[in-house]
Amino acid sequence: MSDQTAAARIAAYLRAHIAARATTARVGPFLVAFDQHSDNRYRNYALPENSAEPTLQEVQYLINTFEERRRVPRLEYMPELAPAVLPVLVDAGFRTEGLLPVMVCSNVGLPPQEPIAWVSISMVSSDVDLESAARVQNEAYGEPNTSPADVARLRSTVSRGGAVALARDTQTGEALGSALYSAPVDGATEIAALGVRSEFRRRGIGSGLTTALARHARGHRIDFPFLMAAHDSEASLYRRLGFSDCGTILHISR
After folding, report:
1. Residue 51 confidence (pLDDT)
2. Which of 187, 229, 247, 251 could form a disulfide with 234 if both were Cys (CB 3.0 to 4.6 A apart)?
3. 3-103, superfamily in CATH?
4. What is the C-alpha to C-alpha distance for residues 34 and 131, in angstroms, rounded to an integer?
5. pLDDT at position 108, please?
6. Where in the chain do CATH 3.40.630.30 domains reside?
7. How many Å apart are CA 35 and CA 194, to the nearest integer?
8. d(CA 37, CA 156)
């Protein structure tokens, strides 16, 4: 699959993923997702249409739509699919947060998984386990509280065909880390929300969660599991796990 085809497939997935959200808005060539329960910037963002050419006025309408809801005006999108968007955003006062590598697990990827003797990784669905997953994810990302909405969000992920992975200490049962893949769209899914408690990082737990989810997805006929790497060293790790680069995602906010 060419990078262009992969990028278009990811953009289609992201658009469908936003459209399935409870609260969305259409502003000119932008589709916007809002989280009613959280002002976390990663849960509130806009995605432009492929080949969009927005006017400065349309971008101002977009800014107003975020600010009316007390959310940070923000976008996540693949710039190669909409190159005319960035100059208008910059003119409107947006600044780049990061340009993240997007990586996909190929058919020939996924080297043999090396188990960690004291860690168990399983796909979970009970509310008790989902709450543990939400708590460890929130702790890893600096969110102080875990709410029923967090558990409901993970429950919805599972009920719509996604999966939540939870790593536990085999002796104590303590939750160590968690990640998920979201509800698939035409065989594509995103592996995301990877979080490991700070004292247990750099022990292979994140790699184990990522590999377990990729294997689980492929075992359920999801042929296009992809993820976004936060930085170059993380991208290097994912390459060793069998993922390959297929584009970039621009995170930009005002």
Report:
1. 95
2. 229
3. Gcn5-related N-acetyltransferase (GNAT) (3.40.630.30)
4. 22
5. 59
6. 3-103, 119-222
7. 19
8. 15
- The tens digit of pLDDT for each residue in 81-106 reads 999 999 999 999 999 999 999 999 86
DSSP 245: E
Give the global pTM: 0.89
| CA-closest candidate to residue 93, choices 50, 45, 60, 65 | 60
pLDDT digits (tens, 9 = 90+) for 176-192: 999 999 999 999 999 99
Which residues does 227 contact at the CB level (< 8 Å), separation at least 6? Answer: 102, 103, 190, 191, 192, 210, 238, 243
Residue 78's CB is within 10 A of a number of other CB atoms, namely 21
Secondary structure E strands in 40-129: 45-48, 74-77, 95-105, 119-124
CA 187 to chain centre: 16
Amino acid identity at 174: E
Backbone angles phi, psi at 200, to 5 degrees: -115, 10
Task: Identify the residue whose tokens are 């558990």.
Answer: 151
d(CA 177, CA 188): 24
Element housing 236 (H / E): helix 232-240
